[in-house]
Structure formats: structure tokens, C-alpha cells
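Sequence and structure are kept together here, with a separate record for every protein. A complete record is shown below as an example:
=====
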Amino acid sequence: MTSAFLVAFVTFVVFIAIKLKFVTSDKLTPLEKPAGGVTVLAFLVGIFSNSFFYAEPGYIYHVRTVLGNEEVVSDPGYKFYPFGRYNAWKRAMTVQAANGMSDRVQAEKETGGSSAALPPLNIMFLDQVDADAEATARFSIPSDEEQFLKLAHEYRSPENLLRTALIPAFKETLQATASLMSAEEYYSGGRTEFNSSFENQMSDGIYIVKRVEVTTTTSRRGKSTANAALGEDQLSYGDETKVSFEVRKERDESGNFRRKNQKFGVFGITIVDARVTDMRPNKKFVERMQLKQKASADRAIAREQKIQEEEQRLLAIARGEREVAERQAQAKVEQIQRTTEAETEKQLAITSAEKLKEQAMIEKETAQIQYEKAKIEAETKRTLADAEAYQKKVILQADNALAQKLEAEVEIQKLWAAAYAKRQVPMNVFGSNGDTPVGGDGETKAFMQMLTLDAAKRLAYDREVKKGN
């Protein structure tokens, strides 16, 4: 269709050029020629400005021609639409609620940072705490010609799409997400879950929920204090019950969560990005959270102090146990030392005793050896003596002890001779009867013989020498 319009337009331009040549012919006056040229040029500029436009990148254009034809233009460059109309649709539209923004829609302009700018949205959490939320959602327009024309027919312009579909869905989903959790849960670590749930519901639909009343009963019972006579043994007057409300997601017969589908999804619009950037609760909740934080901080400090005191106690116990262990170790060392010394003394005593014992045994053995030796020597001497005595006996028996007797006789004679030589002879003898004077040699000799006989008798001395047979 565009080609046909282009051919018609070229034909029309050629026709105008022929007319322009006719106008500049010699039949016209000098004043009429410039006026005719300007008129034709203005006519051409007007036709061109109402038949061409420049398609910007990042936009999809809905073009309607003078003949009632529709086209979808997505490629950048100059496009021909002879005396028609067009709408510029951004490929991606952004709805943003942020602080400092007013309620405005700039669907077909590039000057604004977003297609729709909204002030922070006031939402209500499950625990009836309201807050001002800042969030952003980016929508992608379908590039398929059939879906895009269906979208353009339904909403006619991007402004209508934003005001009647995208912005209401944005607000409803943000509020529905806030209804799934309490403010305390959000500020106690549920921000990521909140953002994920918001993006999920923007893409796949809002959860259909049901508010359920839940009654919780505790085992602790209340006590009455009306009767002072009972003291601490008061009567129970009721049970501890707590009523709360929970929002539960409904499920279908297949077990999947039931959802309210987003209407813009029917036209092929998809979610590129959705996130909550800031959440500012009311002042009373902030004050309550500050008090709770202070109480939590106090509890944390108390816990830390308790832990520190417990650590100090454990440190003191450990220090005492260490000192006890050191003392026990020292005592054990001393005990071991004393035991070692006693054991050493014992071993030394045992060694000394064993040494003395061995020495005594050696001495005993030595004495035994000496005794045996002396016994052997005595036996030897006795044997020798017996042998010598036997020898002497045999000799004596053989010659009747001639040698011994001769020797004894010699000794006797020597003694008698010595005694005779030393006899005392008186000078004067009185009373002599005429015989040998008293004290003379004869008397002495006779006396000596008598003594010799007496000694021989006592000794059984026999001077006779027996002759052998």
C-alpha cells in the first residue's frame, strides 16, 4: 500500500513540476512568475511535511493513512504516510513512584526519565501500619504487528494505556504485596521477600488470598489478685488466648496458587523489571520500632554483659583450675622426685645389701675354701704325721730305738758330767767313820745312779739293746 501511495505521490510531483514549468513560461508577466514559483514551492513543502515522518529508534509507530489503512513501523528512518496520522509508542514504558515526583504522564516524549511519574504510594501492611512506598516497574510493548494493533485499537494511545491499565495494575499489585506481610516482618528481614513477591505478582498475577482469624491458646493461665488472704495462691480466672489474623493464599484443585491475571498480559505486554526502592512507615511505627530497637539493644547489651560476666567467671574458674593444676603438677613433680630419690635410696640399699650379701657369700665361700684347705692341710699334716710316726715306729720297732736311746744316754751323761763338775765339795768334813768322807765323789756317784735308775724306771727306760731275731 505504501508503494502505491509513493507512485501516486511521484506522479503528483511530476504533474506539479509540469505546471511549474508552465508558470515560468514567457506568457506570464515578470511579477507573476516569482509569485507562482513561491506558491508551488509552499504547496510542495506542505505536502511533504504531511506525508513523511522520521521513525526514532526505541519506538513503535501506529500509522493511519488518508485512505484508512494501518501500518506498524518499528524500523528507524523516514516513513511515508500521505496525509495520515501516527502515534509513537515507546518499546518499554516505565511507571515510577518516587519522592519529589508529581502525577504526570509522558508517554511519547523523551524528555522525561519515565513514561509515568507518581508520588510515593501510601500502602497498608497486614498489621495496619501504613507506609509511603517508592517503586518502579518497566513494561515491554509487543513488537508483533497483530498484538500491537490489538493493543492500539483497545487503548488508542500510550497515555490511555498508562492511565487505565499499567498505573492501576502497578498500584494494585504494590498494595496486594503489602497485604501479605506485616510491617515488622518487612523491617525484620522481609525486604527481599517483599521485592520478589512484588515482581512475581506483576508478572504472573496477583495472589487471591483469604483473611483467616486464628486463636492461639497458651498453657499459662491468669491469676486473680482480688483475694489478698490467698497471697500468691490465687485462683485462675481465665485462659491466655490470643486472636490474630492471617492472610492465606488460596489454591486451586491442582494445588497451585490462584491468581488474578494482569489485564495487560492479554495484549502481549510483559514485565521487564519491577522493584521496590524505598519504604517509609508512619512516625508512630518508627517511634515504636526505635523503642523496640532500644529494648533489643539493651537486651543485647545485657546479654553481652552476662556473657562477659560468665566469661570472667569461667576465666576465674580456669585461672583457679590452672593454679590448682600447677600446684598439683608441682606436688606431683616433688612427689615423683621424692619417690625417685626414695627409689634410688632403696635401690642403693638393695645394691649395698646385695653387695654385702655377695661379699658375705664370697667370704663364706672363701672361709669354706680356707676351711677345706685347712682341713686338707690338717689332713695332710695328720697323714704326714701318721706317716712319720709310722715311719718312726717302724724304725723304732726295727732297731729297738737304738739311735734315740743312744742320744738320750748321751744327753744324760752330759747332764751328769756337768752336774758332777759343778758339785760343791766342803773344805772340812767332820764326823767321818774312816770311810769315804761325806760328800765325796763316791757318794755323789752313788746318788746320781739312784736318780738315774729312778728316772729310767719312771720312763720305763730300758738301756738294753735287743738284738733282732
Notes: Confidence is low (pLDDT under 50) at residues 1-5. Residues 416 and 422 are 10 Å apart (CA to CA). The longest helix spans residues 283-399. Helices lie at 2-23, 32-49, 145-155, 158-178, 183-204, 283-399, 402-421, 441-458.
